[in-house]
Amino acid sequence: MSLAPALLTLLFLAADAPPRGASVPRSVPTRPGLSWQEADSLSRKLAVIEERQKAQSRARQTIQVTQGELNSYLNLAYADQLPRGLSNVDVRFGRERIDAKGMLDIEQVRGVATPPTWSPLSLLGGQVPVEIGGRLVNADGFGTVEWDSVYVASIRVPISVLEQMVVSATKSDKHPDGVDIHAPFRLPYSVNRVRVEPGKAVLEF
Fold it and tell me: In this predicted model, what pLDDT tens digit does every residue of 117-140 receive, in sequence order?
């Protein structure tokens, strides 16, 4: 899991990971805007959501997740579970839109998600910024993302190149053919719908 696909994996494949954080060393956040208080807040919400799923509750409910909670959780409590080589993740919520960026160590992922040899991405090395964005469309427990913005080291990457890289980076026993970035995906935790609004996401059950 790597390069731009690492952020895709982070948003959708790692979304149903169990709550973490209690046993993680509590280092002082080095980036402004991150806090263990917000990371713990999301951990508690995930625990409530897991209990709801185990109980097979059908009661209507909404749970709000803020940008601060998500970014603090990903960079502090969940940091050791991020895809290899990915760090300093920053997710932004807009009106029905998700934008994410992070730093990627090319040397750690080279050969896992290999860009086409003709691509300028094949010449990159070291740590580079990665940014992706798109519009989230979802209902009835499934969602899709209409990707419209992909940059690696300030190079705009065609969606077709991203498709190839995602497929090669996400092949596994669970996904032997890799992940199709255009295919509908089931929302985690039996969520029925996610409303993405500026600064927050509202989970509807």
Answer: 545 556 566 788 888 889 989 989
pLDDT tens string 160-189: 777 776 776 667 787 788 778 888 888 888
Round to whole Å and give the CA distance between 191 and 153.
34
Measured torsion, CA atoms of residues 63, 68, 70, 72, in degrees rounded to the nearest 10: -140
Tokens standing for residue 100: 């994410």
Hey, is 89 helix, strand or coil?
strand
16 is written with which tokens? 């149903």
pTM above 0.85, yes or no: no
Q: Which two tokens stand for residue 157?
A: 């990457």
Say if residue 61's pLDDT is above 90: yes
C-alpha neighbours within 13 Å on the C-beta side of residue 89 = 34
Q: How many helices (H) and strands (E) does the chain have?
A: 5, 9
Reply yes or no on whether the pLDDT at 97 is more than 80: yes
The helix, strand and coil proportions of the chain, stated in percent and rounded to the nearest 5, come to 35, 30, 35
What is the rounded distance in angstroms from the CA atom of residue 119 to the CA atom of residue 136?
28
CB 122 within 8 A of CB 112: no
CA 73 – CA 141 distance, rounded (Å): 24
